[in-house]
Amino acid sequence: MNSPFFRPMLRAAVMLCAFGVYAVAVAQDTTTSLPDDFEQRVAACTSCHGAHGAGTPDNALVPRLAGKPAGYLLQQLEYFQTGQRRHAPMEYVVRQLSPAYLRQIAGYFAQQEVPFDHLPVPAVSTEVMRRGEQLALRGDSTRGVPSCVSCHGDKLTGVQPMMPGLAGLSYDYLSVQLASWRTRSRAADGPYCMGVVANRMRESDLQAVAAWLASQPAPDDMRPVPASEHTEPLPGWCVMGDSGVTP
Questions:
Q1: Span 148-177, mean pLDDT?
Q2: Are 73 and 45 in contact (CB under 8 A)?
Q3: In this model, does residue 122 exceed pLDDT 60?
Q4: 3-state secondary structure the chain
Q5: Do 6-110 and 126-229 agree at the fold level?
Q6: How far apart are CA 68 and CA 66, in angstroms?
Q7: How far apart are the C-alpha atoms of 218 and 118, rounded to whole Å?
């Protein structure tokens, strides 16, 4: 247990246990005085997701939370709490938290504005990168695949209140999430839009679009655009989710 491999896991476990005990106390004792500094209350989140939810350069599979739409973040927390989305550490962290606390956490990270760390992308051919660009910007009508920008915004920074940004995410994270949608190990309410999209794409397409997205420089303004500014209609078989958060 003293090896470098186990030390990050041990630190994360300690943080999760500490946060879990604290969460239980809050849930059971409504008179508990919460710390004034909310950063202390999201320590279990930032121990994995980085300071202010900026992500962690040493773990490409941990996503950035900062600046994501509050509605989207709240919905994902609710999914982890109900088991619709599976990840043991996340399920443990949110298990005892109240709806009001989940809403506070989502709102906190949605308001964070921090610089991006551009993570390395595996070397791929020009042809693969060109295919990724096509899928991201124009889609593939022959396979019924809409473009990424049609849902995630022209700058791929997301759309309020529910559509997350793709800009700045790592190749590894994007690849894993696309595979999860494809195998239905990541769940969602409604028509399961991303499950449909991922299953209409070839395996090689998943690699191509993840490589292209991860290789793009982050826009200067990473904030998700208001729904009123997103003029591209969603595919007819897909609808915007709703987690009760007003942008």
A1: 92
A2: no
A3: yes
A4: CCCCCHHHHHHHHHHHHHHHHHHHHHHHCCCCCCCCCHHHHCHHHHHHHCHHHCCCCCCCCCCCCCCCCHHHHHHHHHHHHHCCECCHHHHHHHCCCCHHHHHHHHHHHHCCCCCCCCCCCCCCCHHHHHHHHHHHHCCEHHHCECCCHHHHCCCCCCECCCECCCCCCCHHHHHHHHHHHHHCCECCCCCCHHHHHHHHCCHHHHHHHHHHHHHCCCCCCCCCECHHHCCCCCCCCCCCCCCCCCC
A5: yes
A6: 6
A7: 8
Q: Which residues pair with 163 in a beta bridge?
A: 159
pLDDT tens digit sequence for 43-75:
989 999 999 998 887 787 888 899 999 999 999
Residue 83, phi then psi, degrees to nearest 5: 85, 5
Distance of CA 192 to the CA centre of its chain: 16
CA distance 27 to 243: 22
Answer for the pair 181, 197: CB distance below 8 angstroms, yes or no. Answer: yes
Residues 6+ apart with CB under 8 A from 87: 80
Q: Residue 156: how many CB atoms within 10 A of its CB?
A: 22
Q: Is the pLDDT of residue 11 over 80?
A: no
Round the CA-based radius of gyration of the chain to a whole number and report it: 18
Around Cβ 12, how many Cβ atoms within 10 Å? 14
pLDDT at residue 188, as a whole number: 72
Q: Kindly report the CATH class assigned to 6-110.
A: mainly alpha
- The CATH number given to 126-229 is 1.10.760.10
Tokens of 183: 């195998």
List, for residues 188-197, the tens digit of each pLDDT value.
766 578 989 9
- What is the domain partition of the chain in residue ranges? 6-110, 126-229
